[in-house]
Amino acid sequence: MSAHDYDVAVVGASTAGCTAARLFALGGARVALVEKRPAMDAYKTVCTHFIQSSARPTIEKLGLAPLLQDHGAIDNAVDLWTRHSGWIRSSPDAPRGFNVTRRTLDPLLRELAAGTPGVELLSGWTATGLIGDDRPEGVTIENTAHEQRSLRARLVVAADGRDSKIALLAGAEGRERPHGRFFYWGYWRGIRPATDRSKMWILDPDCAYTFPNEDDLTVVLVGPHRDRVGDFRADLEGAYHRMVNSLPEGPDLRGAELQGKLLGKLDLPSVMRPAAKPGLAFVGDAALASDPLWGVGCGWAFQSADWLVQETGDALDDPSRLDAGLERYRRAHRRRLLPHHMMISDISSGRPINPIERRLYRAAARDQVVRHAFERVGSRRSSPAVVLHPRVLARVIAARPRRPSAVH
Ligand SMILES: Cc1cc2nc3c(=O)[nH]c(=O)nc-3n(C[C@H](O)[C@H](O)[C@H](O)COP(=O)(O)OP(=O)(O)OC[C@H]3O[C@@H](n4cnc5c(N)ncnc54)[C@H](O)[C@@H]3O)c2cc1C
What we know:
alpha+beta
């Protein structure tokens, strides 16, 4: 055995960690996948499961797509309503992502990763420390019986989510941006008429969405502006139902059944940090935890893990080539996601929709060229810069106002 027990130690066996572990191992690496939750079927409860089509190539590369389809995942498409535009309907030919609950997704992905030759899943072990001074050389882990182990690895991958302990240990501070809204949501079974289309409402300043999933389970979420937190504290159920009932073409919850309780998150700042330093990479929420409203986190968890493996997978046996690959990954992550993150976190401040955005929504509702550009940005398949293409921009500028209250 070499001085390293593993080529890669991945901390966190959720979306990003399982993706990184499986893709590294498919390239021949020996991978330790450390997960603090002991159960194989553990899943994330705070998520609303809309996976953007930008992540579909990675999901297919993992071999996960047919498993999701076998378990009833829905090929997703989203229609968006604003009072400045009415409905912006998703094009029939737009590439699709998946709507699938984390209860289904997480165990499937974890089993897939754990069953990949070269991956050793260490469930029920928490990463508690980094080995090495300047450059990490592995992690120390501890189980619930307080047994400790050291895992020496050439590369440490932090896939441990938005409150990344590895980032704290490595002194890799993130830049935080506050959120101007809060969220309450429930899982409803039996909404009729049944639909496989997701809907989103930009109510300026409030927001809402409905995401149908497998087993006739629909997430119905409201995202009011922070000014309204008092109403929801005083009467959560009443305020939730009043807001859902006010949505143009909103879901009819009268014959549907709430599964469990309404869930909520009152404070969700966005956090972004440089996605790599020598010997250490951050993937998924550990690199960028964004506003949940836009359903980007799972997709970016899949994609960032994929980008990391592409840049470093063949350089694990040489520290200087590995660090060069890590630097390329850091730059690629920033180039691909920073423009989206700046736009998303600006809107998530809760500020009013500005006149340029109003024109963009109006044009996207009526004009196919703008709608295609709008969809590519919204599904995160293209940079926000595509809207600045002269052919698109001219049509946005030409979009005239409509009567504010009409609904298509
Ligand atoms: C309200 C809400 C709604 C959302 N809705 C959507 C949506 O519709 N679509 C979407 O794409 N995204 C959504 N997201 C975001 C999405 O949930 C995350 O972006 C995604 O789960 C990130 O995956 P990850 O693998 O990076 O981290 P996580 O899923 O957070 O996983 C981190 C893993 O690391 C483990 N771990 C943590 N610390 C340690 C440690 N020290 N040792 C060992 N293991 C450890 C954890 O147990 C966990 O398994 C939403 C988020 C919120 C808050």
